[in-house]
Write a structure and sequence with these properties.
Strand content: under 5%
Structural class: mainly alpha
Largest sheet: 3 strands, antiparallel
Helix content: 25-40%
Strand order of the largest sheet: 1-2-3
Radius of gyration: 51 Å
């Protein structure tokens, strides 16, 4: 009868362990003994053994880069026009590939030398969000901004102009912070009869 595994919600749930096959007993505690020279090499003399090792290491052979540098740079001209055109196309593709690779390497090197330009970026001149938004919206918005009333500035109230009023006493200026109003009116002319009476 199989036993059910109870999983408690308060305990962390781990993945089941990975079961591998046990290591063979022959690989545990194996003693390989000292290195021995093969029988074919034991029959060689010291000079022959040195020549064999130099041939395997290829110490005297030129490297692939040296062999490529010694090759003739001029390509033989093929007498067949199609083969000559194919050779020309192949050479031009290789040249364009090398030039593109050099350009990409130069761009990468310039990017590494230049580094980051975060410190050279222009920082905002003000911390006020309203000024920053006006500067981003352009000169038209900034020119309209001063005409709008702010929370602490007095509000100008202009009364309607009657049809029979003169230009001098037409406006009444008031303020929200002060309930008093200043009215500009034209003074009435003095009576001329009193002046004539004084002269007589």
């Amino acid at each position: 009868m199989h036993s059910l595994q109870h999983i408690y919600t308060g305990d962390a749930v781990y993945a089941p362990p990975v079961l591998r096959a046990p290591s063979p007993s022959s690989s545990i505690g194996t003693d390989y003994g000292p290195d021995e020279t093969p029988i074919a090499e034991q029959a060689l003399s010291l000079e022959e053994f040195n020549v064999k090792m130099e041939r395997q290491l290829r110490l005297d052979s030129p490297r692939p880069e040296e062999t490529f540098a010694d090759e003739e740079p001029l390509l033989p001209r093929n007498p067949h026009p199609q083969a000559e055109k194919a050779l020309f196309t192949h050479v031009m593709q290789n040249l364009r590939k090398e030039v593109r690779k050099l350009q990409e390497d130069e761009i990468f090197e310039r990017t590494l030398l230049r580094g980051s330009n975060v410190s050279e970026e222009q920082q905002p001149s003000s911390c006020d969000i309203d000024d920053i938004m006006r500067s981003m919206m352009g000169p038209a918005a900034s020119s309209r901004a001063p005409t709008e009333p702010t929370s602490g500035s007095p509000l100008l109230i202009v009364s309607p102009v009657p049809s029979n009023a003169s230009l001098v006493g037409a406006f009444t200026i008031g303020s929200t912070s002060d309930t008093s109003a200043t009215s500009v009116s034209k003074r009435p002319p003095k009576a001329k009869s009193k002046a004539k009476a004084k002269r007589t």
